[in-house]
Amino acid sequence: MTHTLVIQASARRDGSVTRDLSTDLAEKLGGEITVRDLAEALPQIDESWVGANFTPAEERSEVQKAILAQSDALVAELQAADTLVIGLPVYNFGMPAALKAWIDLVARARVTFEYTPEGPRGLLTGKKAYIVVASGGTEALSAIDFATPHLRHVLGFLGIADVEIITADRQMVVGEAAVAAAKDQIDGLVKVAA
């Protein structure tokens, strides 16, 4: 049975296009689903977190282990998943701060990536990711979309190179047609995945 991790990054719980489309996609893919709702605020990394993270695991104090506990849990969710579905609303041309906080907590040297003489190497290989993008006016993957390319790059850095982008963009311009097109895209991708 496949295991899908759904990352919900929208601050809105009701009426969120990314939440609705991400949930629909995950359910259609089937298998076990874990949802990480980033509306439940994650802490920002700080000096104590950085110090704990760069201390070798076998040398960490109990305090340092406690500081990294949430990050460890988020990483474990990622490691356990075969598929990742990320709801990405575009806020002011970029990703929500909550999603950036999640990235900061899961992008960990020697845990989810490593540096080698040939350059960085992601350690989360063999996974498939779907990014469900929604925006009011920003065209996805255009010169003013700094969210989608950033997220795709981070996933690749972590070893997740198989990434599909589903777009419900420019909703304030094209209205419900954006959501309908995204639903069609989802249906097509689910058929291919089956």
TrEMBL record:
Give the family, as the similarity comment puts it.
Answer: Belongs to the azoreductase type 1 family.
Function comment:
Quinone reductase that provides resistance to thiol-specific stress caused by electrophilic quinones.
Which residues are FMN-binding? 10
Output the Pfam families linked to this UniProt entry: Flavodoxin_2 (PF02525)
Q: Which reaction does it catalyse?
A: N,N-dimethyl-1,4-phenylenediamine + anthranilate + 2 NAD(+) = 2-(4-dimethylaminophenyl)diazenylbenzoate + 2 NADH + 2 H(+); 2 a quinone + NADH + H(+) = 2 a 1,4-benzosemiquinone + NAD(+)
List the molecular function annotations (GO) for this entry: electron transfer activity; FMN binding; oxidoreductase activity, acting on NAD(P)H as acceptor; oxidoreductase activity, acting on NAD(P)H, quinone or similar compound as acceptor
- Residues forming the Flavodoxin-like fold domain are 3-187
What domain of life does the native source organism fall in? Bacteria
Cite the entry's keywords alphabetically: Flavoprotein, FMN, NAD, Oxidoreductase
Q: Does the UniProt entry include the keyword Acetylation?
A: no
Enzyme Commission (EC) number: 1.6.5.-, 1.7.1.17
Protein name per UniProt = FMN dependent NADH:quinone oxidoreductase
**Gene transcribed to yield this protein:** azoR
Q: Which organism is it from?
A: Pontivivens insulae
Describe cofactor binding as the record notes it: Binds 1 FMN per subunit.
Q: What class of enzyme is it?
A: oxidoreductase
Q: How does it assemble?
A: Homodimer.
HAMAP family attached here? Azoreductase_type1
The yes or no answer to whether the keyword NAD is present is yes
Q: List required co-factors.
A: FMN
